[in-house]
Structure formats: structure tokens, C-alpha cells
Amino acid sequence: MGNKKSKNWHWSQDVHALFKKLGIEQVAYVPDGGLAKLINRCQADASIRSVVLTTEEEGVAQMAGAWLGGQKGVLLTQSGGVGNCINMLSMMQECRIPLLALVSMRGEWGECFPWQVPMGQSTIPALEAAKVIVHHVDQAEKVPETVHAAARLAFDSYRAVAVVISQRISGSGSRG
Amino acid sequence: MMKRDDCLKSLAGKIAQDEIVVAAYTTAFEWIAIRPSPCNYISSGAMGMTSSHALGFALAWPDRRIILLDGDGSLLMNLGCLVTTANAAPKNLIHFVLENGTYEANGGHPIPGQNSASFAGMAESAGYNNCHELSDLESFEDNIGSILQEEGPTFVTLKCVPGEDYPQDYRHMHSAKLREDFAEAVKNF
Predict the structure, then answer these.
(1) Distance between CA B87 and CA B103 in Å, rounded?
(2) What is the CATH number of the domain that holds A91?
(3) Domain-embedded: residue A6
(4) What is the bridge-based pairing of β-strands B109-110 and B130-134?
(5) What is the pLDDT of residues B61-106, one digit of tens each?
């Protein structure tokens, strides 16, 4: 990882492969353009149970149930969904239940939709206020290694960890 | 209308001691008194999320029956879970809602939709495999055996009123021992 990638390479390839290596068996998500390729890969993988949610907070609780049931999972959410998770994140802190979340950013790099900006700018402070450890990444090549490090921190050190993927990478909501 | 603790006692008599029961709030206090077991998964944190805990657990253990004891106020706070759960379609999940029409743990005020909203109707629309509504102990006892045999996800509204008072021992409910006992029980599945 981190070497020169082929023209068609997308970070979701390596992250999906990493999920397999880590033994991720549940993925919960609310659809988002910045995560669409990763969601597609997970959905196409019979060894991963993909669950589409109605709101992101469900996914935090589902990850708790999965962990207590002996499985590792990942929550995939847009930054807007972080605001929906705050109350449930308290349990991850209180019970030291691991949480690995991939958060695709809106409301930052080149955002052209003003309503996304307030929540986007509140995303990292809100996560940190809820005692979620944040790894921010703004280069596609570094997403896989960042997810790997976050997964170790989450599952080996029993922490809630969010990999916040910059809008610089996804380009979502940015005019060219 | 049946008393909640009578209903829970009847249910406890119909399931095995090692069945996973995920219980919320007031019902959780009563359930752990009525059926003490390391297999009680207590969810009393973020309101509404008990159903989502149960979904994650049910997907992790597809060969074990998971019994969810949800509250009506809790379900209202996470109504979307009905669609999420129906869509994920865990065959091993039975979702009970103990409907007393109030936010009992928070002052006893009525829930919105008291006496008008149909939770079983919502679950049916969401796509649960089986939906039932039971409001007296006799019909509960007549039907619970066959309900427990159904292929899930199954939804059951239990219309009830509070029965006896049970101790609300937060220290016990949140003790490290209960957590360790649960972890040990799951490890031995």
C-alpha cells in the first residue's frame, strides 16, 4: 500500500481486501456517494453481511451487538450522519466496545452545497467530544493504511475510532 | 390487559435458560429478576437502540434464537429499525414490544399515538415475516408456543400494564460481573 497505483485503482479495493484480512463480517451503512464503491464491494461479498440502515445511530448499536456476538463490523457513514450517532456513542465509551467507523466528509474541501458546511465543520469536534479517536486522511493512497491502523486501535485496544476521509479524496459536492 | 410481569413469567417458562434475551429499560429490571441468567443482554443506554443491538447480535448468531424485549417509547425513537430489521431479515429474531402506552421510566407521560398507533401494523408494513398483537394472558399462553416456532423476523406487541414493583438496582444491572458473565456465556456457545 502507498506505492504507485494503477490508473483505475480506487482506495476501496484495498480497504475491502483489508476488511477480509481483518475478518470483518458485518458492515452497516447509510448510502453515501463518497463510500459508494466500498459499499458496492461489500455488498458483492458473500462473507460480509451488509445492512442498510435508516439512520446511522442504528449502526452504532448494531456494531455493539455484533461485537458482543463475537463478530467485527464497520460502520460506513457520511459526515452528516455523525450527528445522528452521538447518544449511542456513549455506550462504546462506557463499555469499551470497539467501533470502527469510516466517515466520508462533506462540508469541507471545495464544498458547493452550503447546508453541508455546518455539520461538516462540526463532525470532527463532535466525534472528539464523544471520545471517538479521529484519524483524518486526505490522500487516497493513505486511506488503506489509515483504516488498518484505526482497525488495530479499535479492535485490539477496544476504542471507538473514526477514519475521516476528506472530501478532497471523494470530490463529492465539489465543483471541478 | 395483562400484567407485564405475569407475561414475562410466562415467557420465561417457555424458553431455555441459555436463550439470549435483549431487554430494554423497565422491562429489563423485571426480566433479570424473573429470569436471572448470564444470557441476559441488557441495553439501557441510548434510548431506542435496543432493537439495533439485537439485530447485530442476531446476525452474528444466525443459529440461535434471539428474543428482544423492546418498549413502545423506545421503538418510537427508532422506528426505522423496523424497516432495517425486516430488510436484513434475521430468521432467528423475535421482536416483542411491551406496550404500556407511556414513557414509564421517565415520568409516566403518555407516548404519542397512545391507543391509536399500531406497532404490529407498522411491523407488518415494514415487512416482518409474522406480526401479532396480544393483550391478555390467556391468549399469550395459547399462542406463544407457536409464535416461538415461527421463522423470523417475528414481531409481537404485548399490550400490558405494570404489575408488581421490582427492584431497580442500577448497581447490579451495570456491574462488571453481569458483563463478564454474559461474555463468558457467549464464549461457551
Answers:
(1) 28
(2) 3.40.50.970
(3) no
(4) unpaired
(5) 999 999 999 999 999 999 999 999 999 999 999 999 999 999 988 7
How many angstroms separate the Cα of A87 from the Cα of each of A58, A83, B106? 11, 9, 17
A132: left (phi over 0), alpha (psi -120 to 50) or beta: beta
CB atoms under 10 Å from CB of A50, counted, come to 17
CB–CB of A66 and B83 under 8 A?
A: no
What residues of chain A lie within 8 A of the CB of B45, using their CB? 88, 90-91, 94
| Per-domain residue ranges of chain B | 2-184
Closest C-alpha among B141, B33, B152 to residue B91: B152
Beta-carbon separation of B55 and A25 below 8 A? no
In a domain, A3, yes or no: no
* 8 Å CB contact between B19 and A30: no
The 8-class DSSP code of residue A35 comes to G
Grid coordinates representing A176?
471541478
Q: B94-129 pLDDT, tens per residue?
A: 999 999 999 988 788 999 999 999 999 999 999 999
Going by the DSSP 8-state scheme, the letter that residue A25 receives in this structure is: E
Domain range holding A62?
11-170
Within a domain: residue A41? yes
Assigned domain for A1 exists: no
Count of domains in chain A? 1
Do A68 and B58 make contact, defined as CB atoms within 8 angstroms? no
Say whether the ipTM exceeds 0.85.
yes
Looking up cell 463532525 gives A123
For residue B164, with 0-12 CB atoms within 10 Å meaning exposed, 13-18 middle and 19 or more buried, which class applies?
exposed
Nearest CA in chain B to A28: B56
The H or E element that residue A53 is part of is: none
CATH number of this structure's domain B2-184: 3.40.50.970
